[in-house]
Amino acid sequence: MNHETMVGSLEIQVYLDRLASADPTPGGGAAAAVTAAQGVALLSMVCNLTIGRKKFADAEEELRSIAGALEKSRHEMLAMADRDVQGFGETIQAYRLPKATPEEAQIRQSAVQAALKASSEAPFALFKECLLVLPHADRLEKIGNPSVLSDVIVGRYLLVAGMLSAMANVEVNLAGINDAEFCKSKRSIMLPAIGSMGVSWRGGK
C-alpha cells in the first residue's frame, strides 16, 4: 500500500468517491475507522477550545492529558483503516487460491482461515480503541467548555457508531472462522462492552 492510497492521506472528496465506487476497498471497515477518528477529532477540538482559558484553569492539566491521548488515538484509528484495507486484500487473495485437488483445497482452507483471523484484528482493535476513548467524552462533558457541549455529544455518537461498525466487521470475519475459541475470545470482550452501554446488538451472535 503506497502513500497515495492510504486512507489518511486522501482528500475527503477523493475518499468519498472511492468509498462510493465499485472497488470494495475502502469499505465498511475503513469507514468505521474514519467515523471514529472524526469523533476523536471533535473531542480534541473541545479540549483545544477549553485549554488556556482562565475559567477552566483548574482542569488544565487533565485537559492537556486528554488532548494528548486523543491525538494518539486519532492517528491510530486512521492506521486501522489502512490495516482493514490490507486485510481485505489478503483475504481475497486467499479465496482465489486453487482448490482443484485435495491438497490445494487444504492449503486454501488454511490460508482462508488465517486471513479471516488476521482481518478481524483491525476492526477488533478499533472497537477496543473506541471503548478506551469514550470515557474521555464523558469527562469532557463535565470539564470542557460548555459552549461546545454539542461537539462532545456528536463526538460520542460518532465513536459509538464507529465502535458498533467495527464490531459488525469483526463479526463478518468471525462468521467464516472455524476456531470457536478464537471467536469466543473476541465476543467475550465486545458483547459485554456494548451490553454495559445499553446498546442492543443485532449484527451477529
Task: Describe what is shown at a glance.
Helices cover 74% and strands 0% of the residues. It has 205 residues and is mainly α.
Notes on the structure:
The chain is an all-alpha fold. The protein has one domain (3-196): Up-down Bundle (Four Helix Bundle (Hemerythrin (Met), subunit A)), CATH 1.20.120. Helix content is 74%, strand content 0%. The protein is elongated and about 75 Å long. The mean pLDDT is 93.
Give short descriptive properties of this protein.
205 residues, 0% strand, mainly alpha, 74% helix, Four Helix Bundle (Hemerythrin (Met), subunit A)
What's the structural blueprint in terms of helices and strands?
Blueprint: H1 12-20, H2 28-48, H3 60-95, H4 102-143, H5 149-174, H6 180-196
The first-level CATH class name: Mainly Alpha
| CATH fold category name | Four Helix Bundle (Hemerythrin (Met), subunit A)
Shape: elongated
- Tally of separate domains: 1
Q: Report Rg.
A: 19 Å
Q: What number is the mean pLDDT?
A: 93
Structural class: mainly alpha
CATH architecture: Up-down Bundle
Note the gap between the termini.
33 Å
Low-confidence stretches: none
**Tally of contiguous helical segments:** 6
Oligomer: single chain
Strand content: under 5%
Number of extended strands: 0
CATH superfamily: Formiminotetrahydrofolate cyclodeaminase monomer, up-and-down helical bundle
Largest sheet: none
Instruction: Give the SSE string.
Output: HHHHHH
Q: How helix-rich are the residues, as a percent range? A: over 70%
